[in-house]
Design a protein that fits this description.
321 residues; alpha/beta; Rossmann fold; 2 domains; seven-stranded parallel β-sheet; 12 strands; elongated
Length: 321
């Protein structure tokens, strides 16, 4: 019998997962401790866990071989030296957001390409202004999308951009998908391809390598008509540098769902800059099918773990994803 621990804090989703896992796989005993102290005692002889394990609990987890991370992009601090050095295999649910987030990205692409922010501003003033748009119209079949991070979300975004007739360039350190319509490059080539893009779409996780990668120096490589879209992780982008690039006309504008500081401070100038679209980190909010998708990956990995088979979505712990 394998012991599986749902790490605290407990919530309705974890309780639902625990019940379904118990009912589906007889090989497991699933426990759901309510406190960190209880979790530490349960983890002494646990084979696997779901959630986050603090260092003091990891130190007593003598049998732990598998940790399922509930999120594709975990919170800052999820990975720490002891966890990285530990032999435990970590897996995550990457890929479950592929359609929801790519649709949000395409909302930004379509709106910015047609100058929607200018017309929304005119609408707010109750002005019928056919000349409100002050940025060039971008015809998508003549445009190029550069997608930085061609993983679960990025590969679906690439497909949608291609369907709209766009040329698509991808940058990724470890491509996982067969994308014949995407011109792929390594991260070391990013600055070389940036000047070609009309839309720069960042779907990268926050890692030691990607923190602050979008900065004043990098925005200088973009066309002054190009748009920057970030829907990966906020800490990859220096928000002040982005605002300066938009304000100065160095780039055409931006669409953001994630931010270096969340919530974005109300006095930040990005709120009032033209040709900017901001949503408050809600690209997958209210998506009813995500809990089931997350559970199915957990269930598949539980089956594989019990059978001694390789897990899905294994994380490179040293790179955090």
């Amino acid at each position: 019998m394998l012991k599986f621990v749902m790490m605290p804090p407990q919530n309705d989703l974890k309780k639902w997962f625990a019940t379904r896992l118990t009912e589906t796989l007889s090989e497991y005993t699933v426990v759901s401790p309510e406190t960190d102290g209880d979790a530490r005692r349960e983890m002494v002889d646990a084979d696997a866990a779901f959630g986050w394990i603090p260092p003091e609990t990891l130190s007593v987890s003598e049998k732990l071989r598998w940790l399922q991370n509930p999120d594709s992009g975990p919170f800052e601090g999820y990975f720490y030296p002891e966890l990285i050095d530990h032999p435990v295999i970590i897996a995550n649910p990457r890929g479950i957001y592929f359609d929801h987030i790519s649709h949000h990205i395409m909302m930004f692409v379509l709106a910015l390409s047609r100058g929607l922010p200018w017309y929304v501003e005119a609408q707010s003033r109750k002005v019928w202004d056919k000349e409100a748009r002050e940025s060039p119209y971008i015809y998508l079949p003549d445009a190029t999308a550069l997608i930085v991070g061609v993983g679960g979300v990025g590969h679906e975004t690439a497909r949608l951009c291609h369907e709209f007739g766009m040329d698509v360039i991808g940058v990724d350190p470890r491509p996982e998908y067969d994308l014949p319509h995407v011109e792929m490059h390594s991260p070391e080539e990013l600055d070389d391809v940036l000047p070609r893009a009309d839309f720069v779409i960042a779907t990268t996780p926050h890692t030691p390598e990607t923190a602050g990668m979008w900065n004043a120096d990098r925005f200088k490589y973009m066309k002054n008509t190009a748009y920057f879209i970030n829907i990966g992780r906020g800490k990859t982008t220096r928000i002040d540098a982005l605002a300066d690039a938009v304000e100065s006309g160095e780039i055409g504008g931006c669409g953001l769902d994630v931010y270096e500081i969340e919530p974005l401070p109300p006095d930040h100038k990005l709120w009032s800059l033209p040709n900017v679209l901001l949503t408050p980190h809600i690209a997958v909010r209210e998506a009813d099918n995500l809990p089931e998708r997350r559970f199915q990956i957990l269930l598949e990995n539980a089956r594989r773990f019990a059978a001694g088979q390789p897990l899905k979505n294994i994380v490179d712990k040293s790179r955090w994803y």
